[in-house]
Amino acid sequence: MAYKGGKGKKNRQVEGDEVIRVPLPDRSQGQLFGVIEQALGAGWMDVRCEDGKIRRCRIPGKLRRRMWMRVGDVVIVQPWPVQTDERGDIVYRYTRTQVDWLLRKGKISQDFLTGGELLF
């Protein structure tokens, strides 16, 4: 299924016959799902990632000015190339309806959101 580029269609992916409007982590770049554990101030957060590590992540300026991030929000984390296991950037924050969609499709589990076991 092909589509012509246009305004607002950059986040679409095709999975089978269904068009996905929810951005997913780009595994080729090492991106991961994460849940914000603690707000540290000055644009920094402690994020529990799906691989079990807690990374200190910063919120880039374009996201910091555009949306609020709170403890418990589901985000996409891009680990840094240097301190891969310790630091990262928050690339995207999911809305409540997007989190519900991720749960329905099995992309994340309820245990992951509540702080229990990891994905899958």
From TrEMBL:
Keywords: Initiation factor, Protein biosynthesis. Residues 20-95 form the S1-like domain. The keyword GTP-binding does not apply. Transmembrane segments: none annotated. It comes from the Archaea. CDD domains: S1_IF1A. Pfam families: eIF-1a. GO terms for molecular function: RNA binding; translation initiation factor activity. Belongs to the eIF-1A family. NCBIfam families: eIF-1A, PRK04012.1-3, PRK04012.1-5, PRK04012.2-2. Seems to be required for maximal rate of protein biosynthesis. Enhances ribosome dissociation into subunits and stabilizes the binding of the initiator Met-tRNA(I) to 40 S ribosomal subunits. This is Translation initiation factor 1A. It comes from Thermococcus nautili. The gene is eif1a.
